[in-house]
């Protein structure tokens, strides 16, 4: 039991450290890790509903609502009513977000490279594989 506890504690601590590093990298742009997650998913997956964002990012509705409202206030996303169901709104990146996205991504990639600089490529690939497998197991 102790080994499992230590493993999950380590994963949790790593997650916190990664969030802190990401917040520091994005600080010059007044964006936080939760906002970056939404911006990144919308950029890579296209327009999604708030419910779809919650499901994909494993975030409860109230914090997602706050994140989306902050992004709307910053001018980075807008809500588009569904043509099929007016109660459903899609979240879409604005032109402002699309214009600024490359700079945000550059800062994140620089941080990623810095964090992995002393981590051997073979270990990175093994870790990537293990994390994908674990993520699949968690979603079952």
Can you say what the CATH homologous superfamily is? Answer: Winged helix-like DNA-binding domain superfamily/Winged helix DNA-binding domain
| Number of β-strand runs | 3
- Terminal residue distance: 22 Å
Which architecture name does CATH use? Orthogonal Bundle
CATH class, please? Mainly Alpha
Q: Radius of gyration in whole Å, from Cα? A: 17 Å
GO molecular function: DNA binding; DNA-binding transcription factor activity
Pfam families: MarR_2
Keywords: DNA-binding, Transcription, Transcription regulation
Organism: Bacillus oleivorans
Give the tags.
mainly alpha, Arc Repressor Mutant, subunit A, transcription regulation, 140 residues, globular
Structural write-up:
- The protein has a single domain (2-138), classed as Orthogonal Bundle (Arc Repressor Mutant, subunit A), CATH 1.10.10.
- It has helices at 2-26, 33-45, 50-57, 61-74, 95-116, 121-138, and strands spanning 48-49, 77-81, 89-93.
- 12% of the residues are buried.
- Helix content is 71%, strand content 9%.
- The protein has a three-stranded antiparallel beta sheet.
- It contains six helices and three strands.
- By secondary structure, it is mainly α.
What is the strand and helix layout of this fold?
Elements: H1 2-26, H2 33-45, E1 48-49, H3 50-57, H4 61-74, E2 77-81, E3 89-93, H5 95-116, H6 121-138
Antiparallel strand pairs: 1-3, 2-3
Helix pairs in contact: 1-5, 3-4
């Amino acid at each position: 039991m102790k080994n499992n506890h230590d493993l999950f504690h380590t994963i949790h601590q790593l997650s916190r450290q990664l969030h802190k590093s990401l917040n520091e990298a994005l600080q010059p742009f007044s964006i936080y890790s939760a906002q970056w997650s939404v911006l990144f998913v919308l950029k890579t997956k296209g327009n999604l509903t708030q419910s779809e964002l919650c499901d994909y990012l494993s975030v409860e509705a109230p914090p997602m609502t706050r994140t989306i409202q902050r992004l709307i206030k910053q001018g980075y996303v807008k809500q588009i009513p569904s043509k099929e169901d007016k109660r459903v709104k899609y979240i879409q990146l604005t032109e402002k977000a699309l214009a600024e996205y490359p700079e945000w991504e550059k800062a994140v990639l620089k941080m990623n490279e810095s964090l992995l600089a002393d981590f051997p490529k073979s270990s990175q690939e093994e870790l990537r594989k293990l994390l994908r497998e674990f993520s699949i197991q968690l979603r079952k």
